[in-house]
Amino acid sequence: MERGREMDASGTAAASVSLIPTAFLIFLLFGCAALGRAQSNSSDSEVADRAKQLFAEQRWQEIVSLSHATQNPTADFDFYYGTALAQLGRLADAQQVFTAGARLQPCDKRFPLELAGIAFKQKSYPQATRYLRRALHLDPRDSYANDFLGTVYFLQGNVEAALKYWNRVEKPQIVGVRAQPAPQVNTALLDRAFAFAPASVLRLPDLLTSHVRIRGLGIFPNYQFDLQARDDGKFDIVFRNRERDGWGQTKLEKLFLLFRGLPFLSVTPEVYNLRHQAVNFVSLYRWDAQKRRLSAELSGPFKANPKFRYGLIADLRSENWDVRKSFQGPAPLLGRLNMRRESVAASLASFESGRWRWSAAAEVSHRDFRSVVPGVALTPTLLAKGYQLKQLAQLDATLWRLPDRRLTLEAGLSSQAGRLWSQPSHSFDKLQGSARLHWFPRGQGDDYEVQQQIRAGKTFGDVPFDELFMLGLERDNDLWMRGHIGTRDGRKGSAPLGRNYFLSNWEADKNLYGNGIFTVRIGPFLDTGKITDPSAGLGTHQWLWDVGAQAKVRVFGIGVAFSYGKDLRSGNNAFYVSMR
User: Fold this and answer.
1) What is the DSSP annotation of 392-438?
2) Using DSSP, how many helices (H) and how many strands (E) does the chain show?
3) Residue 383 φ/ψ, nearest 5 degrees
4) Read out DSSP for 259-298?
5) Over the stretch 251-278, which tens digit does the pLDDT of each residue have?
6) With contact defined as beta carbons under 8 Å apart, do 189 and 273 qualify?
7) What are the residues whose beta carbons fall under 8 Å from the beta carbon of 369, sequence distance 6 or more?
């Protein structure tokens, strides 16, 4: 037993003796490794300090030579080394070094800034903008990054995005403003439409406000604001424009504007910029036996102020309606009538800013109905006739604008309240809302364009027949389902009618050709809608889906659209030509 214990004691002692050198060896190895790392870090730090000194002296080749003296380069050394490579023209190598430094110090803004500089030298502007946005994410107030990013967007032709970042550093300074060619409109009126002035900083909100007010004049179908750089680092603004003046600038333009509606049995006498005050007279005479119409509108700046615009409108109609469920194929008659309607209205619009605008109007009208076949669609309430007084109000606003991505989101809200003195009298309200997303996918130019618009409307009270909503293609209607045509044998009523609706229109366009006067664009579209009504013969009982393609031609500022749409519910095909 004792011998056994001695052996145990002897064995334990032997194990302890053997563990001591092992533990000491491990400790020694770790110590040597730590000492080596400390010496290496000290050496790398000294190399970085030496590189910093050479950087201040712009001795680029010597910095490159130092790269062989460091095993684990620090982020600071990568910055100096990458800068030296870039200065020596070795851009690809510099890009690799800066990328490695960014991995070591992802929160150091110097690396994305330098990477942006390399991309800029390589004329890779989209890549430069990505690096600069990264740098501004790290430091939004960096004046160099804001100025640099504004410059890149300016070179891409994206003036709005350039102003977004330049404005943060009090740029660009505007020296002069000129128009090319010189327009006929009164110079003082045009100057008041510009929300910016010479010898000042051009602000993005001022440019957007100027856009809205120039469009509000109604005499510039094509225009743009160009920034021209000067040798002193400042800019001039050039207003490039194509103006409508009088009946038209050339004989060809005059004839086109007057007789463009001949295929639709109409003429459109229009005179623009009367007395050079942006006062416009626009009219329509249509002698189609099924839908006669005579309308005229006189509009102009209110008290010579382009911020406000008045309108005086007269509209006379005599229309034959056959209410049906389809514009082709078997479709029983659900109701028939002839409607005569006369109205006069006055409106006032305010272009408050590039962010929002409003309008208000009042209308007096009279309607009566003849040759009525009620069928199942036309109720006595819909056929109420007499004089009507209606007030209208509309508010439009830009909810979101992202100049970097060339994307905007706009919304609108409109209301109408009317009272009809019939037997018995009726009153009603109409409320509509809309949202529109507009996007140019490419960083510059308008080669591609995508739009998505959603609209909805609801009525309250007893609306007369001519106040119903309609979903379909028709020249007097703007709620388009491009697989549904609103006329059959020339008579209105073949598109869905009702008191409440939802409508979504999506389209994408690709430029085929353009020379400033004549442009051609093509692209697909998708329309979705539903309209409801308590009357059995009106509305739709299911969602409608239309798909197709369209070609848009623009001549002298007038848009002509050729569309083919297919109604996925019925299988009907719709070919249509329209002007806007």
Assistant:
1) EEEEEEEEEEETTTTEEEEEEEEEEEEEEESSS-EEEEEEEEEEEEE
2) 11, 24
3) -95, 15
4) HTTGGGTEE--EEEEETTTTEEEEEEEE--TTEEEEEEEE
5) 888 898 899 999 999 999 999 999 999 9
6) no
7) 337, 338, 339, 340, 383, 385, 465
Instruction: Give the confidence band of 30 by pLDDT, cuts at 50, 70, 90.
Output: very low
- Encoded tokens for 245: 């003046």
Please tell me the distance from the alpha carbon of residue 465 to that of residue 365, in angstroms, as a whole number. 13
- Residue 279 CA to residue 345 CA, distance in Å, equals 17
CA distance 486 to 492: 6
Supply φ then ψ for residue 520, to 5 degrees. Answer: -130, 130
Residue 386 clears pLDDT 60, i.e. is over it: yes
Q: Which two tokens stand for residue 525?
A: 């579209």
Task: Round to whole Å and give the CA distance between 323 and 472.
Answer: 13
Condensed to tens digits (0 to 9), the pLDDT of residues 300-344 reads: 999 999 999 999 999 999 999 999 999 988 889 999 999 999 999
Per-residue tokens: 486: 């609103």
HEC secondary structure over 129-183: HHHHHHHHHHCCCCHHHHHHHHHHHHHCCCHHHHHHHHHHHCCCEEEEEEEECCC
Beta strands in 287-380 (DSSP E): 291-302, 305-323, 335-350, 356-373
Which residues make Cβ contacts (< 8 Å) with residue 46, sequence separation at least 6? Answer: none
For tokens 């990568």, the residue is 78
Collapsed DSSP state (helix, strand, coil) of residue 57? coil
Q: pLDDT-derived band of residue 65, with 50, 70 and 90 as boundaries?
A: confident
Rounded to 5 degrees, what angle do the CA atoms 263, 266, 270 make? Answer: 120
Scan for tokens 């739009």, then name that residue.
Answer: 451
C-alpha closest to that of 417 among 391, 393, 386, 387? 391
Crossing angle, helix 75-87 and helix 110-121, to 10 degrees? 20
Determine the Cα–Cα distance for residues 83 and 86; give it in Å rounded to an integer.
Answer: 5
Q: How far apart are the first and last CA of the chain?
A: 114
Residue length of the chain: 580
Distance of alpha carbon 56 from alpha carbon 15, whole angstroms: 61
C-alpha distances out from residue 150 to 129, 237, 334, Å: 9, 16, 61
